Amino acid sequence: MKTKLIIFFFISTWLALTVRVFFLSINSHSHYVKLSEQNTIKYERIAPVRGEIVDIKDRPIAINKLGFRLQLAPHLTGKKNKEILNQEMQTLKNLLPSLNVEDMLKNYKKKESYYNHNYIDIVHFVPYDEILPVYSILNLRENIKIIPAPKRYYPYKNIAAHMVGYVSRANKKEIGKDKLLGLIGYIGKTGIEKYYNNYLQGKSGIRKVQVNASNQEVAQLSYAKADEDKKLKLTIDMELQTYMSKLFEGKVGAMVVMDVNGSILAAGSFPNYNLNIFVSGMSYKMYDSLSSSLDHPFTNKLIHGLYPPGSTIKPMLGLLYISTDLSSKWGVDCRSSLPLGGRTFRCWKRKGHRHTDINKAIRESCDDFFYKGSLILGNRKMSVGLKRYGLSS
């Protein structure tokens, strides 16, 4: 009896295993094939190329310089792999002498984590001409990845700086809002670059590849292109913009030139700054020098400057004086105050400007000159004349 039970147990177990093997190999074959394929298929996102910005005559204002970023495999900081990390760093230094090993290690350790399984950016940009001679050597190294990485470049440097704006490295908060920035690395921070960032940034592509057990690529299965060749055309004319900048060399102020249809042909705030210094990051010393300047180069005086409203009307009043009965030779003796209608209107300069003609009045913004000139001109002529310049429209 005992022998029969043992035989029955073994036969039952064998039948159960046979049925299970049949189920796995026949009925569930397609299911496990699918799972196996997923294990050998890898999806890679392709970064879009940021769109260019051009002026009304297609002159390039913001373009992309071709280059590459370097990435290193994760988990090389442990005792077992530390020697590999040092070897890779030395290889990069030997092939690309311009690189700084300390900076590369700093960038690597900042992102290195037990939970991170992605390659880590250690150099954000290496020019195309530097990479080209050593590309084939680096491409053979298992722990190093070379990724195309265009870098924003502004050919006109400081011209139209406040209007065009600049791109810079995206911070954690910005990447948290837009995961694509983790792939691209840069975002529009000010001006047109910021306002049209979504359009200029574009959409990523995706590449589907098959890899073997060593994670080496075997075949490309599909490829969806990322956005490229986008262009944003502005109404400004960089020839006029350059001329405006020359007029304001060494001066502080702001100026806008508009077409009769309302489009902006040129606009500038002065002093300005070289947009290219923001792309790769500037030293603290340079930033402190710009931010602490009494001329406030970071302030866009076109939209953020606060000025007494009377000062903005003075140049137009001056033109009206010249075009009517008041000749360019007419002047006043500014004593800093004008009693009128039971109150006293004062000039900004307490001691007065003394004898002032129209040139001096506009240059030094003499209030008294324009008070007295407006009284002579009269309300009606002022109203008609100022409407020609777009006021009250």
From TrEMBL:
Domain Penicillin-binding protein dimerisation residues, every copy: 46-221
Main subcellular location of this protein, as a coarse class: membrane
EC code(s) of this entry: 2.4.1.129
GO cellular component: plasma membrane
Subcellular location: Cell membrane; Membrane
One MF annotation (Gene Ontology) recorded for this entry: penicillin binding
Any one of the GO BP annotations: cell division
Domain spans labelled Penicillin-binding protein transpeptidase: 253-392
InterPro entries associated with the record: Beta-lactam/transpept, Beta-lactam/transpept-like, PBP_dimer, PBP_dimer_sf, PCN-bd_Tpept
Pfam families: PBP_dimer, Transpeptidase
Name this protein carries in UniProt: Cell division protein FtsI [Peptidoglycan synthetase]
Lineage: unclassified sequences, metagenomes, ecological metagenomes
